[in-house]
Write a structure and sequence with these properties.
The complex is a heterotrimer. By secondary structure, chain A is an all-alpha fold. Chain A is 72% helix and 2% strand. Chain B has 2 domains: 121 residues, NADH-ubiquinone/plastoquinone oxidoreductase chain 6, subunit NuoJ (Four Helix Bundle (Hemerythrin (Met), subunit A)); 45 residues. Chain B contains 7 helices and no strands. In chain B, helix 2 runs antiparallel to helix 3. The longest helix of chain B is centred in the last third of the chain and has 31 residues. By secondary structure, chain C is mostly helical. Classes of the chains: A mainly alpha, B mainly alpha, C mainly alpha. The interface between A and C is medium-sized, with 9 and 15 residues.
């Protein structure tokens, strides 16, 4: 199976091509079967690959052909298979397949089913290329490919201009990060002369001491790309708006896979990042700031999908924190468990939205516990994992990250404390969601129940969200081990206690009403804080003021093309002169002869003077 | 004696040319032009270029002018053509071209007066001309032959089209 | 044949006068036949200048250039007269001012 590695991205790619070419002329069941089936087959291939790889778990490089050769630049179409790749592939195809299956029901009534599955399959193919690429340029191809698919899918319901604007925002903001990443690639290539990931790591270790300016700059640029794609500060503003797409898209792209590409990029190039401690510190600090900011924002949202979007940003912040403090495998571990429970949450939210006439506002839901039991249990398990309650998958991964942060020298305890605060907030906002949506008074009646194609992925993901923490990922070879050593027992107990406290607080505030915060919330300061956090720390307004407005102003200024005035002047003058001159062309031979004689006279006079 | 002959030939050539180009009847003009060419041939002969003089008479006055005669006859302009020519040659039309030409003539005269020297009086025989022509000027002869060929093809092409059209109509 | 010795400038002035006469004809006449005749006159005038120069040096080159000019004149007249016929058939006139499509 290892020789047929190329089959894995090819399957969804071929399906995407087929769906694009037929452009919806296939019968709808066939479209769904093609869209979901190709990813399912890819998942099967990944499973077989994993089984055969497990016999002989050494990294493998597989070069298909040379992509292009320009001087010493020789990127290949080649794959690299190690534990990290395998983990990512499993997540992408596994979770991806479940979401595709779910989509077949969710998008059943949509008129552009074929377009939807074409984009989704293309996305899966691009994401697989991203994680399987053996060189950074090929990786960049997948990177841009997922960006494109994200744009297409956010703006999937393009008839509403709001969705189009959200898609453009997602595209433009991530483009900023991508540009930084491209610069990083160029810098690495000019310095080391190759883009092969493994060679880069070797050469860099030979060439630079830790902390060398060049490597810090290069990794900082790569970090820029990761920050853009993974919606971290300061480029996180696109992700909440990206929820304009269909809910399964949010689940697959904007929660489970694509947004974790930045985490993957950093983990894949961890040798480079290890040479640049300042960048690693930046990774950790950025992650911490993002997770806190997003957690505060999530606490104040009304829209069920926006809450989940901010929680995604926050959880990716945890992954960054983990990577930054050297807990590489813990970061990837959290990526995996997060993919399970966030996909679960989004799909459950999708089921709620699907059954409630596309209602997004959580305050118009409520009491759905008995009416939508499947969604309720899924949501409950997903939220428990998100809040990192003990014995759920999220608990293990988040715990590892927090412990690693605690052990990190210098500012480690501060990072740990920040992470704990974030964990507390996570528990509160996730259970706020559960309590408001599924308990209390019924507001809106569901008009249908999710069918088996929705229920099955939800149940599988429920199981995965619980037992996901017990899987041992084959990352020992691929990533450096976390520093061992047990911290004080109190630290561990605090980590366990915090989510429980958070859930209790949420219960007291939102369900039991024992804790009445309405006075605090309704006070002037509380209102202002609520508004501030609701708007996402006014980041959008800031960017609007800082970048968009000046840009639009300049654009308006340049709309009439003031620079072109000079050129247009030249054009008009020459046109006028042309008309003047063309009057000379009468078509009369006698006139031509006379003018020639006139010219001759002048010429002779000049020659006579000169001679 | 010979000098006076030469100047007389020059006078005839110029007068005949002017008369030729101011005629309204094309046939008359052609006759004057032939006279002018014959006078120039005399000048050639007197300057010691008998071969050139012979060619002037045979080719220029003989062949080329006969072509003109044929065409004029084919067109058959007649009285109406003369009438129209007279209209076209209104006096005011002459003013500007003559003025220009005179200025040019003055300029040329100024340039020419700076030249001194006389014709040598040595006769250049046809034999010498032939030797030079097929010696150093061989390439020029070839090029001239190509030019004649092009003229032949061009004339045939133009003539054939007009013949075809006249048959159709 | 005893040589004739006339000042070169006289011959050249003669050539120039013939040339100018042809030029005036070219600029004044509208009939294409007369235009072709004017061209002949001008070519002939330049030929006279060449022959005079050849006579001055006692070399054959002047006559050879005359012969080349003769060739040009012959070719030009054959094509030109073809054009005259064409013009007459198409426009029913010999007026060169009518053949002014070059303007467009």
């Amino acid at each position: 199976m290892l020789d047929f590695l190329w089959l894995i991205p090819l399957l969804p790619l071929a399906s995407a091509a087929l769906l694009m070419v037929t452009a919806g002329s296939l019968p709808r069941p066939l479209i769904a079967a093609c869209g979901a089936g190709s990813v399912g087959l890819a998942a099967l291939c990944v499973l077989l690959t994993g089984l055969s790889w497990a016999h002989d778990p050494v990294p493998r490089q597989m070069e298909l052909w040379t992509w292009m050769q320009v001087g010493t630049l020789r990127p290949t179409i080649g794959f690299y298979l190690d534990g990290l790749t395998l983990v990512m592939m499993s997540v992408i195809t596994g979770v991806g397949f479940l979401i595709h299956l779910y989509s077949t029901e969710f998008m059943e009534e949509d008129e552009s089913l074929s377009r939807y599955f074409a984009y989704m399959n293309l996305f899966v193919a691009a994401m697989l290329i991203l994680v399987m690429a053996d060189n950074l340029l090929f990786l960049y191809l997948g990177w841009e490919g997922v960006g494109l698919c994200s744009y297409l899918l956010v703006g999937f319901w393009y008839r509403d201009p709001v969705n189009g604007a959200a898609a453009r925002k997602a595209f433009v903001v991530t483009r900023i990060g991508d540009t930084a990443m491209a610069l990083g690639l160029l810098l690495l290539f000019t310095e080391l002369g190759t883009l092969d990931i493994q060679q880069l790591a070797e050469l860099a270790q030979g060439k630079w001491q830790p902390g060398d300016t060049t490597i810090v700059l290069a990794t900082a640029l790569l970090l820029g790309g990761a920050v853009g794609k993974s919606a971290q500060l300061p480029l996180h503003t696109w992700l909440p708006d990206a929820m304009a797409g269909p809910t399964p898209v949010s689940a697959l792209i904007h929660a489970a896979t694509m947004v974790t590409a930045g985490v993957y990029l950093i983990a894949r190039n961890h040798e480079l990042f290890l040479l640049a401690p300042p960048t690693l510190l930046a990774v950790a600090v950025l992650g911490l700031l993002t997770l806190l900011l997003a957690a505060f924002t999530a606490l104040n949202q009304h829209d069920i999908k926006r809450i989940l979007a901010y929680s995604t940003i926050s959880q990716i912040g945890y992954m960054f924190l983990g990577l930054g403090v050297g807990a590489w495998s813990a970061g990837i571990f959290h990526l995996v468990t997060h993919a399970f429970f966030k996909a679960l949450l989004f799909l459950a939210a999708g089921a709620v939205i699907h059954c409630l006439h596309h209602e997004h506002n959580i305050f118009r839901m409520g009491g759905l516990r008995t009416r939508l039991p499947v969604a309720f249990w899924s949501f409950l398990i997903g939220s428990a994992a998100l809040a990192a309650l003990p014995f759920t998958s999220g608990f293990y991964s988040k715990d590892q990250i927090l412990l690693a942060a605690y052990q990190w020298p210098q500012i480690g305890p501060w990072l740990w404390a920040g992470g704990l605060l974030g964990a507390l907030l996570t528990a509160i906002y996730s259970f706020r969601l559960v309590f408001i949506v599924f308990f209390g008074e019924a507001q809106t009646e569901p008009d249908r129940q999710p069918g088996w194609r929705m229920a099955l992925p939800l149940s599988i993901l429920c199981v995965a969200s619980i037992v996901g923490g017990w899987i041992s990922l084959p990352l020992a070879e691929a990533l450096p081990a976390t520093q061992s050593g047990h911290p004080a027992a109190a630290v561990e107990w605090i980590s366990i206690a915090i989510p429980v406290i958070g859930v209790s607080l949420a219960y007291l505030i939102f369900l039991g009403r024992q804790l009445d915060l309405s006075a605090l919330v309704n006070s002037g300061l509380g209102q202002r804080l609520h508004q501030f956090w609701y708007s996402g720390w006014r980041m959008d307004a800031l960017y609007n003021w800082l970048w968009v407005r000046p840009y639009q102003f300049t654009a308006r200024l340049l709309k009439d093309e003031p620079v072109d005035l000079a050129y247009n002047g030249v054009v008009h003058t020459s046109v006028a002169l042309h008309h003047l001159l063309s009057n000379l062309q009468t078509g009369r031979m006698r006139w031509y002869a006379s003018t020639m004689v006139g010219g001759l006279i002048v010429l002779l006079a000049v020659l006579a003077r000169a001679g | 004696m010979m000098e006076s002959l030469f100047y007389m030939a020059g006078f005839v050539a110029f007068t005949a040319t002017v008369l030729s180009l101011s005629r309204t009847n094309a046939t008359h003009a052609l006759i004057y032009l032939i006279i002018s060419l014959l006078a120039v041939a005399v000048m050639f002969y007197l300057m010691g270029a008998p071969f050139a003089a012979a060619l002037e008479i045979v080719v220029y006055a003989g062949a080329i002018m006969v072509l003109f005669v044929f065409v004029i006859m084919m067109l058959n302009l007649g009285q109406a053509g003369e009438q129209r020519e007279r209209q076209w040659l209104a006096p005011r039309i002459w003013i500007v071209p003559t003025l220009l030409a005179l200025i040019l003539l003055v300029e040329m005269a100024l340039a020419i007066t700076q030249i001194s020297g006389t014709t040598s009086g040595v006769e250049v025989t046809p034999k010498e001309v032939g030797l030079t022509l097929f010696g150093p000027y061989l390439l020029a002869v070839e090029i001239a032959s190509m030019l004649l060929l092009a003229g032949l093809v061009g004339a045939y092409h133009l003539g054939r089209r007009s013949i075809d059209r006249s048959r159709q109509s | 044949m005893p040589g004739l010795q006339v000042p070169l400038e006289h011959v050249l002035m003669m050539a120039a006068a013939l040339f100018i006469a042809g030029l005036v004809g070219l600029m004044v006449r509208r009939n294409i036949i007369f235009i072709l005749m004017s061209l002949e006159v001008m070519l002939n005038a330049s030929a006279l200048a060449f022959v005079a120069a050849g006579a001055h040096w006692g070399q054959a080159d002047g006559q050879i250039i005359f012969m080349l000019i003769l060739t040009v004149a012959a070719a030009e007249v054959s094509v030109g007269l073809g054009l005259v016929l064409l013009l007459q058939r198409r426009f029913k006139t010999l007026d060169m001012d009518n053949a002014n499509r070059l303007r467009d």
